[in-house]
Amino acid sequence: MARWEPDARGRLVVAAVDLFTEQGYDATTVAQIAERAGVTKSTFFRYFPDKREVLVAGQETLSRLLAEGIAEAPAAASPLEAVAAGLERVSSAMGPMNRDLGPRLKAAVAASAELQERDALKSVGLAAAMTTALIARGVPDTTAQLAGELGVLAFKRGYSEWSEGDRESDHELAHYTLAALDELRAASASLG
Amino acid sequence: MARWEPDARGRLVVAAVDLFTEQGYDATTVAQIAERAGVTKSTFFRYFPDKREVLVAGQETLSRLLAEGIAEAPAAASPLEAVAAGLERVSSAMGPMNRDLGPRLKAAVAASAELQERDALKSVGLAAAMTTALIARGVPDTTAQLAGELGVLAFKRGYSEWSEGDRESDHELAHYTLAALDELRAASASLG
Description:
The structure is a homodimer. The first copy, chain A, is built from ten helices and no strands. By secondary structure, chain A is mainly α. Chain A is elongated. At the A-B interface, helix 6, helix 8, helix 9 and helix 10 of A face helix 6, helix 8, helix 9 and helix 10 of B.
């Protein structure tokens, strides 16, 4: 299998996550991230406004893909079937770099309160993107909000299993996010 | 009805929220908050580590009350019935000050990305507190996580309706949080 070669943007993400984990988020500067990635500071700023945003890189892309998948699901799809279509769309956009990053990202976030906050707001944004796309399909507000939350839980669980748990498996991310959504659907029947 | 008289801690919260709304979060200093509340800066620091924490004041108390309510629910209670017990417990601890603060808090958070992040992490914390308490009752992990998320959604919706919507109503907060939980329970049946 060919070695995966990240572009400048990908190298910046990897360098930032590694430095955050090695020496802490607060102690890491943009200059250090750029140096580790082999690019200049101005290249850094072409991709990211500051070091924190490196870690939520892709939130807008994720939101857009989730919303597109939901919008394009068959008209007869149930709210969770539409969420599944969103998860399939977003999962298919994530490759080896995203898989490699998972455990390092988790360690960096676990070590910084500031990154935990940013990460929490990212989840809020993804849930809102799905909820809005579901409402546009005519799903009632409360059901749409609930389905959006389930979508975020499924995405996070699936991503975590794919990137941290079962590293030897050939399964794509979609396999894990859709399985997690099924599990959550089953659990919703036993809430009482 | 007697005028509600907040103590120093309550006055600090009110002063902070008002200043954040009037002049922005970034432009507000701890000295200004203390002055507006009629206390010294060292009194401020007796209650809060920094200005941001003023806005999530009470997160630990909320988490504790939610967890206690869940733990003390009857053994035969379903996961959502236990969550309802947690919501009742926490709702009964919130009085006129919390109701008055709602709309101002919302405005302050809406105006600051930093506060939105802190607020998002607060929700994560409340959901985790409920999930942990449910797992301790023997609820399976996935069901517990889902029920914890529903509990947070119900708390936020109920608090928002109580403090922003129906200001003339005599209903207690519990009326709104429990109604919101019922609505979410009904919606979970139509996820498909």
